[in-house]
Write a structure and sequence with these properties.
Helix content: over 70%
Mean pLDDT: 89
Distance between the termini: 48 Å
Structural class: mainly alpha
Order of helices and strands: HHHHHHHHHHHHH
Radius of gyration: 18 Å
Low-confidence stretches: none
Strand content: under 5%
Number of helices: 13
C-alpha cells in the first residue's frame, strides 16, 4: 500500500497518506501507475454519462474531457511534453537536448507545441462520439497509456541514469515489474476489444503507433528515456487513442 500511496503522490493530485519513500516501496510504485488511469477513466466515463443525460454539447463536453486528465495529474505530464518539445525544437546535440530537458524555463517551442497539441486534442474530443461501449473504450485510454509508459520505463535505457524516473526504476525488480505492467496492459487490451471490437482495436493501434514512435525518437534523439519524455509520450498516446476512435467511428459510417 505504501507503493500505491507513493504513486498517487508522485503522479497525481489525488489525496494520499504521507509515507516514507523507502527502497522497498519505491521498487513497486511504478506498477501502481495505471491506477491513476483508472480514476481518470472513471471520471471521464461519469462525465460522458452526465453529458448524455443533460444534453451537453460537444464543445463543453470536449473541454472538460481534455481537462480531467490534466487536473488529476496536476499537469505533470503536460510539463514533460513542453520540456520535450523545447528539446526537440532546439535541433542541438544529444547532450544539449538533455540539458534543455532539465531547464525549468519555458521556451518558444514549448508554447507553440503545447498550444497546437491542446487545440488538436480539444478538437478530437469534440469530434469523437463517447456513447455506448465506445465511451468505455475511451475511458480505458488513460489506463493503457500509463501501462505503456510504465513498461517503457522498465524496458528502455535511462538517458541520464539519474533523475526522478531513475529514482523509481533503479530499486525495482525489473522482471517482476514487467510482469505486473504486462498484466495491466493485457487486461486493458482485452477489455477494450471485448467492449467494442472496432473502436477497441483502433485504440490499440493508435497507442501502439505512438509507443513505437516514442521508443524510436527517445533512442535516436536522447539515447534513452527520461521522466519528461515519459510525460511527452503519455500526452501523445492519449491523443492518438481518441483520434483512432474517431477514424474507426467514421469508417463504420462509410461502410
Amino acid at each position: 500500500m505504501k507503493s500505491l500511496f507513493i504513486a498517487l503522490a508522485m503522479y497525481s493530485k489525488l489525496p494520499a497518506p504521507g509515507v516514507e519513500w523507502d527502497k522497498k516501496s519505491l521498487s513497486w510504485a511504478l506498477c501502481w501507475f495505471p491506477v491513476i488511469g483508472v480514476v481518470i477513466g472513471a471520471l471521464l466515463y461519469g462525465w460522458f454519462l452526465l453529458c448524455a443525460a443533460l444534453g451537453i454539447g460537444p464543445f463543453l463536453r470536449g473541454a472538460v474531457s481534455l481537462l480531467i486528465p490534466i487536473a488529476v495529474s496536476g499537469a505533470i505530464h503536460l510539463d514533460g511534453f513542453c520540456d520535450t518539445s523545447d528539446a526537440l525544437g532546439s535541433h542541438q546535440d544529444r547532450a544539449r537536448k538533455l540539458e534543455i530537458l532539465k531547464d525549468s524555463h519555458t521556451g518558444a517551442f514549448a508554447i507553440i507545441c503545447c498550444t497546437v497539441y491542446l487545440l488538436l486534442f480539444f478538437a478530437a474530443w469534440c469530434e469523437v462520439l463517447p456513447t455506448g461501449r465506445a465511451a468505455l473504450v475511451l475511458a480505458l485510454g488513460p489506463v493503457l497509456s500509463r501501462g505503456l509508459s510504465g513498461l517503457a520505463a522498465v524496458t528502455q535505457p535511462n538517458a541520464r541514469g539519474s533523475g526522478l524516473l531513475a529514482t523509481f526504476t533503479q530499486p525495482m525488480d525489473a522482471s517482476g515489474a514487467r510482469i505486473v505492467l504486462g498484466l495491466w496492459l493485457g487486461v486493458c487490451a482485452v477489455l477494450m476489444v471485448a467492449l467494442d471490437p472496432w473502436t477497441g482495436t483502433a485504440s490499440l493501434i493508435g497507442a501502439a503507433l505512438s509507443f513505437l514512435y516514442y521508443i524510436r525518437m527517445s533512442r535516436r534523439q536522447f539515447g534513452g528515456i527520461t521522466g519528461d519524455l515519459a510525460g511527452f509520450f503519455l500526452q501523445i498516446c492519449e491523443c492518438a487513442i481518441v483520434l483512432a476512435v474517431i477514424l474507426a467511428q467514421k469508417a463504420v459510417v462509410l461502410l
